[in-house]
Amino acid sequence: MPLVNTKKMLEEAYSGGYAVGAFNISNMETVQGITTACSELRSPAILQVSPGAIRHSSPTYLTKLVEAAIFTYPDLPVVLHLDHGPDFDICKNCIDMGFTSVMIDGSNLSYEENVSLTKSVVDYAHPKGVTVEGELGRISGMEDKISTARNESFYTEPAQAEDFVKKTGVDSLAIAIGTSHGVYKFKGERKAQLRFDILEEIQKRLPKFPIVLHGSSSINPKFIKDINKFGGKIQYASGMPEEILNKLSKTAVCKINIDSDLRLAITAAIRKYLFLDHPCEFDPRGYFGIARKAVEGLVAHKIKEVLGSEDKI
Ligand SMILES: [Zn+2]
Questions:
Q1: 295 assigned to some structural domain
Q2: Which residues 6+ apart lie within 8 Å of 148 measured at CB?
Q3: Residue 284 C-alpha to ligand 1 middle, in angstroms?
């Protein structure tokens, strides 16, 4: 089937009490690993592209790779989504290139500027059948080498979220309730401190409206251990516990973004393959193939243990 937008996919997730995983893609192996796992487990798929991935691979390569994936799995509903679009022009370019969903991230602007920028993207996107995700509040951590310190982050105001959705017409909203981007999520705090009360209040004010959770990788210690055992050096990494994410997947949270966990799974697999098992290997197909398998395994695990999106298509 052709690419779909997030409208029906997230409505079904809301009413079904599960969340759809939004996995970041940057090359052929990530696209293949994610879509293979989703197809095997009959889970809808959101493939998202950050501005950094666009710089790395170009929108042409990424859209063509996704085209190959939907050709390979004709029954799989797939959304191609722009993650953290920083301005109108990038959103417009992605829409013109065939993306079916975009995020406009005006969270670093004043409230009025964020409303006006987000509305301009909605006005361009909706007549073309493209859905739009906005962001309100500021999520801390490191996203695509842009860092927001903990003390510069702030929680989403529920009353403002209600006003924002009404004024802009966005289809989903990323909120800040204490999650954090990157692999060093809760440095110094050692554990997640989430404001479930904010989510509950937003859910009350915006019934049936899909909420998006960013900064939701769990940073499995097994990957960190393998990376460090085979020549890496990643210290003090921590993430969002999977049982908390699983609980959230049954609420208004309908889209859960996962990027860092994929990066760690790939890095751990390649390091182990080259350092331990195949020190003489110089054929990239060997370690890229292992990376693809690692992506597939991680996505299958998330679908079953975190998102609850198995057998939903
Ligand atoms: Zn994000």
A1: yes
A2: 138, 139, 140, 141, 181
A3: 30
